[in-house]
Amino acid sequence: MENTNKNTIWQSFSLRDWIWPLVVLIGSLVAWQIYADNMDRYEVAILFGVSLATIWLGWYWKSFQTHAYFVASISLVSIWFYQMNGNLYQANETVFFLKYLISSQAAIMWMSFLVLLGTVTYFFGLFRQSDFIYKVSTFITWTAATLGFVGIMVRWYESYLISSDYGHIPVSSLYEVFILFIVMTILMYLYYEQKFKTRAMGGFVMLVMSASVLFVLWYVFDRQSHEIQPLIPALQSWWMKIHVPANFVGYGGFSIAAMVGVAMLIRLRLEKHNPQSRLLSGLPTQRIMDDIMYRSIAIGFAFFTVATVLGAMWAAEAWGGYWSWDPKETWALIVWLNYAAWLHIRMTKGWHGAPMAWWAVIGLFITTFAFLGVNIFLSGLHSYGEL
After folding, report:
1. Torsion-angle region of residue 256: left (phi > 0), alpha (psi -120 to 50) or beta?
2. Residue 61, phi then psi, degrees to nearest 5
3. DSSP assignment, residue 100?
4. Quick check: 288 and 299 in contact, CB under 8 A?
5. pLDDT tens across 286-317, in order?
6. Cα 370 from chain centroid?
7. Where are the alpha helices (DSSP H) in 197-285?
8. Whether the Cβ atoms of residue 290 and residue 201 lie closer than 8 Å to each other
9. Residue 273, class by beta-carbon neighbours within 10 Å (0-12 exposed, 13-18 middle, 19+ buried)?
10. Residue 316, Cα to own-chain centre: how many angstroms?
């Protein structure tokens, strides 16, 4: 029986699914050949480890393949324009497509606009119960995720155009990690949207993305945070390449769970006080929202746990100890304990509905303080992350 199931899985692969790993591995080998002199053995391991994870994700979620092809194609076009012109600042001013569309900053600004637009259209679709508007909302959101990812990839290249001393993966500043957070969370949401075949939660989830975009816009126009800066010594480590992304998969999962919790609380209130509401008929069932909350927190918790362990190992290398009760570390532990308790109660006691929804919403406030509040109000070994 087991062999039959395996044969069925392989037989279900299309030509596209066989081309996918070849493209990813060839791209990884080319990157390795070009940048091998700048990579140590850990970074080489990260490169090919991410390649294998990307292949698996593309097989598991076919839409990710299309997304990745668009991101890679647009990013390569942008890089080609830079190579044709040589100078970063001159190219950004003279090349139309770079200046207005696919330089890192232009792509991120388009992402920001589309996130705000997508939030509005998702809610419009919910209130109008319009499949067409919903489809437009999904397209807008996919485009936002694509341009945000392009912005990250092109910014990485731009940092090396400035100087090899500036060159780094763009996950070091608050500006950069907010873009990473937005892109990762949107992709996680779009997966659940496809899996559960409902777009009614899109507006709620995108509210967090819109709030993040507004912060990014303020940060750009008030602090000029989009300007690429060299890494400080504490961040000049290969650990950053795995610790930070893992952290933000966790934050993304927790954010989705909280906003689905908000939608569930609205549904429960409407069922009690206004069962004839048009909005009620458009929201998913409580069972679906319970399931999405649980899956989001479970995945977020797994990645957040890995990120916390990686952070401890990085701390041991950088500061000589795995744990120092730095404010950032302490609040990371609080976040971890909060979601560990949520999952424990869910799995052992079978709690669901309003109590768990409220808990998920409160958890987002705890997570937000751990991520952003600590940087504003507290100081410590992570003081380089202050606003």
Report:
1. alpha
2. -130, 95
3. I
4. no
5. 999 999 999 999 999 999 999 999 999 998 88
6. 17
7. 202-223, 240-273, 278-282
8. no
9. exposed
10. 27
Give me the count of residues in the chain: 387
| Angle separating helix axes 202-223 and 174-196, nearest 10 degrees | 170
Residues 6+ apart with CB under 8 A from 17: 58, 59, 62
Q: Nearest to residue 181, comparing CAs of 104, 262, 227, 245?
A: 245
Query: What is the reported pTM?
Result: 0.94
For residues 83 and 85, give the distance between their C-alpha atoms in angstroms, rounded to a whole number: 5
Q: Rounded to an integer, what distance in angstroms lies between the CA atom of residue 232 and that of residue 376?
A: 19
77: CB partners within 8 A, 6+ apart: 97, 102
What does the pLDDT look like over 188-211, one tens digit per residue?
Answer: 999 999 999 999 999 999 999 999
CA dist 34 → 27, 144, 166, 167 (Å) = 11, 30, 18, 15
Tokens, residue 17: 């699914």
Q: How far apart are CA 381 and CA 135, in angstroms?
A: 46
Q: What are phi and psi of 218, to 5 degrees?
A: -60, -45
Distance CA 75, CA 65 (A): 15
* Main-chain phi, psi angles of 40, to 5 degrees: -90, 180
Where is 276: in which H helix or E strand? none
**CB 300, CB 268: distance < 8 Å:** no
The Cα 352–Cα 381 span in angstroms is 39
286 contacts: CB under 8 Å, gap ≥ 6: 264, 267, 268, 352, 353
